[in-house]
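User: quick one, fold this
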Amino acid sequence: MKISTFTLSTLAISIANTAVASGFEGVTQWNAKHGALGGTGASYVNDSSSIFFNPAGLAFTEHNDIALHIAIFDMDKDVPVAAADSQHTNDIKHPYRGGFTGNYRLDDQWVLGYGIFNVGGTNQVYKDITVGQNNNTLTDDFSSYLNIMEANLSLGYKIDKNWSVGAGLRYTWFASELQSLASVQSSPTMISGLRSEYKELTGHHFGGVRLGIMYRADDNQWGAGFSYRSKVKTDQEGKHHMRVNTPVVSEYRDQNVKTESILPEQFSVGVDYRITPDLQLFGEYTFTRYSDIEKIEFVPDNLAVAEIATINTDWKDRHTYKIGSEYSGSSWPVRTGYSYTTQVVPDERATSTFSIPAPLHIASIGTGKTFFDNALVLDMTIGYAWYETKNLDNNSTLKGSYSEKTLWVMASTKYLF
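Assistant:
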């Protein structure tokens, strides 16, 4: 039996998030200080986190440092799963991200940065989903896991007291697993339950870059910065297992499968201005070229059993607008931030494992403290992210209500030497 293109497409539309990072690149990521400031950083970052926000910031570091970062999310996502109007809530509430960064000054002009950190990911489980009809039903979990990591080695160069440039070399790897469910027309009179499991999908890419330039005024009252991340593209390879629940149960066990993984090109431009000695404001715009992802293909190694499934994504470019403020006139500074991100997934491509087809808002507040004669820095942030609820009544998508709300906390600790 050869599974039809229609059947595989029904499955693939629910699993395309395993191939790309749409909706899973957090605006605030994992650094607590920058998370509190709306995810800004391109114009003012001046520690080891520069390898992510703007490698040119390395040149303005005043100390060597090593730092650990962690972010934990309490996510409440409610979407239709596997069928229209079948509302379910994600059962994995606490996905996390993190990173390790460090820098070392080589001389008055050159600074080396290094680190390993999350670029994006997701962890979703919807339990006890039933698909199929009559005696051909199948009940199981609908789940998706994606982790995108980056190892980075960067150099910052100080041109003069105002200008710096920087560049970073990246090694990016992807790991994902997914179990998806669907109701499929297995015969003219039969609707069967189908389960498709993709396991141990992994891929990696060496050679991506991050580039940056930064300007700081003589009195450090204001600054500006630009950072760029190149596109990363590689293949994820793993195993595929499929089961169709019919009167004569059909199973296809562990054939090899391949799908393309893409982390799109991105750039940010930011500014900051110190209004008073104790109050500084920040602003930044980030563009991510998701429109480059025109389609997603899942290619089995045995085309005699299953055909290539092609999904046209029609994703939109992502625009993120960020603002932040820091009041430093007390022993515990007060940092606030807000960001707005435009819709990436079109309404007609909505599915449970993509990001919500709506704009994203994030509000945050945080603080920080130094200890042991300023040798140890601790930053903490709490934030709330929400997509505007979208109610879809469209024959070309999963009809129903799409909503997601996330409470998150971040902590970063940094040792200066």
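User: anything notable?
Assistant: The chain has one domain: 5-416.
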